[in-house]
Amino acid sequence: MIQQKEIKLPAFRRGYHLITDVVETELAGLPDLPEAGLLHILVKHTSAGITLNENVDPAVRRDFESTMNIIVPENNRIYTHTSEGGDDMPAHIKAALIGCEVTIPITGGKMNLGSWQGIYMCEFRDHGGPRQLVLTVYS
């Protein structure tokens, strides 16, 4: 069986934001969450990403931001896609590096994440606006 739900996240400031609780709440609202299965999450945007990583120390999220800004600097002369601002093309590159989807096992009707893992919504734009996720559960 496949269940699917689309959710709208509020606009986040630029950075890496834990959304594990939001996803758990949305999953709890599904009528037939399986004992065992897979959750696939897609972020429907080309300038934002989603990933799993450290969920306790906020320094990790700050270090992600600092490192990605070194790897993919803004306002670089080599970019030709500049009509939407100096943060747009770098946001597309960062989204491609981080990725737009994750798949998480479901065990006992809950996400089966490691003790230190959380789901990050990665906002790469200064003003990205609300973002949409598609949650698909396969059982």
TrEMBL record:
Entries under InterPro entries matching the protein: UPF0047_YjbQ-like (IPR001602), YjbQ-like_sf (IPR035917)
Coiled-coil portions: none
Family statement drawn from the similarity comment of this UniProt entry: Belongs to the UPF0047 family.
Name by which UniProt lists this protein: Secondary thiamine-phosphate synthase enzyme
Organism: Mangrovibacterium marinum
